[in-house]
Design brief:
The protein has 11 helices and 24 strands. It has helices at about 75-80, 100-110, 125-135, 150-160, 185-200, 225, 325-340, 365-375, 405-410, 450-455, 475-480, and strands at about 5-10, 15, 35-40, 65-70, 85, 90-95, 115-120, 140-145, 165-170, 205-210, 230-235, 240-250, 260-265, 265-270, 290-295, 300-310, 320, 345-355, 385, 390, 395-400, 415-420, 435, 495. Strand 11 and strand 12 form a beta hairpin.
């Protein structure tokens, strides 16, 4: 038997050291070193490439990857069109959020045309069968294996050669080549590496289910995310029936793609119109509410931004944002005071993105400022209006990409007015849309009253937005060159 030795592995980066210390010498993280027992064995790894010789890149045959449709449109969208032949997908999420339910539904859909295998390490075969019966799924062609030993799983995969295999979960699988317990850093890294090598060599698409930490990150070393081809996160509030799948890494598709599902008694159901989840339904326009168009991967989504500005009764006014970056909120308030002359230093400011969605792009800046001013002045914005645009520290309004897709999505949902940067104005006529510049006045103000007096208190002439020299102080003049949609009898909207 090979002589065993003790090493210390970092749970964050996977680095190893011979002695314990408080700080990892590789990633400088504190209290992340865990003791593991290793053995001196022969190399268990082989290259995933068919050849190791040097060759010209132009001589390598390049072709489209073979994809398997999952039968779930939202899942295909996040994956970039479906599962890839020989690809490895890592799906992480909180306990009980629906990872196993979604994958079992996917395998039942795909079993009609493909050879599928479900490897359960957390549940017994009877528990999986009860779940399929409860969801009323047709699982006649789904093969099931309740096993946690890596060598046994590899043997079954090599023997049956399934097209798609699900490992639920990677933290429960262990290898007899290592003496550490299942779920340890060494075991997770070893099992993931071996399954990835098997997937590349045999062409089997393997989906790995991963646990998450209390901070929401995938449990185990970060090197696990580098091994796989696609990393998906299952997000959602336990108090809500809606679930979101977000792609954080995808070698075969777009990153930050978003898939929306609704949890029901019969499992997860696709949401065809996810924008409706992030919009409130008011009987009339209310102050502090502004609708923006954000871009999640290749999908534009309409999200309502709500702001509440109230008089502060404490020496330090509160600045709270939900779904938006709090530091960016403080920056926007400074821009609002410096370049628009609207102070909020004595006001509590609360900003919320409806529906629990997280907005990370700067295109929400203009919508946040409009919602704050609307709440401060207690005047609602125009009905059926969408806004997007980035606001800089110098007061300029920068364009965001892609602009035309956002406008098409808003028009599809019945919005008739849009405030956008001049550079995002469509250069060509959109289908069923005619272009004509017009001015903008906020709802609740007279048409003859200047927008500057009612909202931004700006009276100087604005320069060209497209050139990047337009000041936020002169926002009203900039908006005179923005996009306005109004319904008419001939077209769906006009600009």
């Amino acid at each position: 038997m090979a002589k065993s030795k003790s090493t210390y592995s970092c749970t964050e980066c996977g680095g190893q050291t011979l002695k314990w210390q408080g700080q990892c010498p590789h990633c400088q993280a504190w209290n992340t070193l865990v003791e593991t027992i290793t053995e001196k064995t022969v190399s268990r790894f082989t290259p995933v490439s068919e050849t190791s010789r040097v060759q010209s890149l132009s001589m390598v045959e390049a072709g489209e990857e073979q994809r398997y449709s999952t039968g779930v449109t939202e899942f295909d969208r996040v994956l970039g069109g479906g599962l890839v032949h020989g690809g490895v997908v890592l799906l992480g999420g909180d306990p009980g959020i629906g990872k196993s339910t979604l994958l079992l539904q996917t395998l039942c859909h795909m079993s009609a045309a493909h050879n599928v295998l479900y490897v359960s390490g957390e549940e017994s075969a009877r528990q999986v069968a009860l779940r399929a019966k409860r969801l009323a799924l047709d699982a006649n062609a789904v093969h099931l294996l309740a096993e946690i030993q890596l060598e046994r799983i590899q043997s079954v995969l090599s023997e049956r050669k399934p097209d798609i295999a699900v490992i639920d979960s990677i933290q429960t699988v262990y290898s007899e080549a290592l003496q550490s317990a299942p779920g340890s850093v060494a075991q997770v890294r070893e099992c993931a590496a071996q399954l990835t090598r098997l997937a590349k060599a045999s062409g089997t698409c393997i989906i790995l289910v991963g646990h998450v930490t209390k901070e929401g990150a995938l449990a185990g070393p970060r090197v696990l995310e580098h091994m796989v081809d696609t990393v998906l996160y299952f997000e959602g509030d336990t108090h809500s029936s809606f679930r979101l799948i977000r792609a954080f890494k995808n070698r075969f598709g777009a990153v930050n793609e978003l898939g929306v599902f609704a949890m029901s008694e019969k499992g997860l159901r696709e949401v065809s119109n996810p924008s409706a989840l992030f919009l409130s339904h008011h009987g009339a326009q209310v102050p502090g509410s502004c609708v923006m168009v954000t871009q999640e991967g290749t999908r534009p989504l309409l999200v309502e931004i709500q702001a509440l500005v109230d008089e502060a009764h404490a020496p330090n006014p509160r600045r709270l944002s939900v779904g938006l970056e709090q530091n960016r909120l403080a920056m926007l308030l400074a821009v609002l005071h410096r370049h628009a002359g609207i102070p909020c230093f004595d006001q509590d400011v609360f900003v919320n993105a409806v529906g629990g969605v997280k907005i990370t792009e700067p295109g929400a800046d203009l919508a946040v400022l409009l919602a704050i001013v609307s709440s401060l002045k207690n005047k609602p914005l125009a009905e059926k209006m969408v806004v997007f645009g980035e606001v800089g520290l110098a007061g300029e309004v920068r364009p965001v990409q892609p602009g035309q897709e956002r406008l098409k999505e808003a028009a599809k949902l019945g919005f008739t007015l849009a405030i956008i940067p001049k550079a995002n104005k469509p250069r060509q006529a959109m289908p069923m849309v005619s272009l004509s510049p017009s001015s903008l006045a906020m709802a609740g103000t007279e048409a003859s009253e200047p927008t500057t007096a009612s909202c931004w208190q700006a009276n100087r002439r604005a320069s060209n937005v497209e050139a990047g020299s337009s000041s936020f102080t002169n926002a009203a003049s900039s908006w005179a060159r923005s996009v306005r949609w109004s319904a008419d009898s001939q077209t769906s909207c006009s600009i």
